[in-house]
Amino acid sequence: MNVVRNICVAAMVLGLGACASAPRSLNDNLIVPGERVGDVKLGMTLFELFAAKGNPRKTTPIPNTRATTYFYDGLTVAADDNVYWIIADDPSYRTDVGVGPGAEQILARGAYGKPKCVVTQEDVTLYGYGDIYFDVDNVSGKVKDVGIQRDSQACDG
């Protein structure tokens, strides 16, 4: 009788273990406002950025700062000692509601509501929401890229 009970308990434990979900992969191309784009997180160190993405395609110092812009396929990352903004221009990157490069402006505006600021230039209009912003092509009406920061300076200066 004890053998049967032990087998039943072991089967239940193994069955419950199989139901446990694996930890969520950060390499999911998800844009999370104020937090991350895929496996690149705001606040991560340069060493962590290198470990996650490897060598950038291109590196450009940001004038009059200690910061540098790192260019990867589909992502542009700015960092001094830590990552402080990330821009996605590859359509595989999306927010949880489907906003990303190539999405319609109406979807982005509908999903995030009234922007904190709007800056229109010749080719693009920027819609800033604090921890996320969208550049929208003025001709096609499609999102060109999506940027995240902890607190956006996208509309400053």
Automatic annotation (TrEMBL):
<protein>
    <recommendedName>
        <fullName>Lipoprotein</fullName>
    </recommendedName>
</protein>
<feature type="signal peptide">
    <location>
        <begin position="1"/>
        <end position="20"/>
    </location>
</feature>
<keyword id="KW-0732">Signal</keyword>
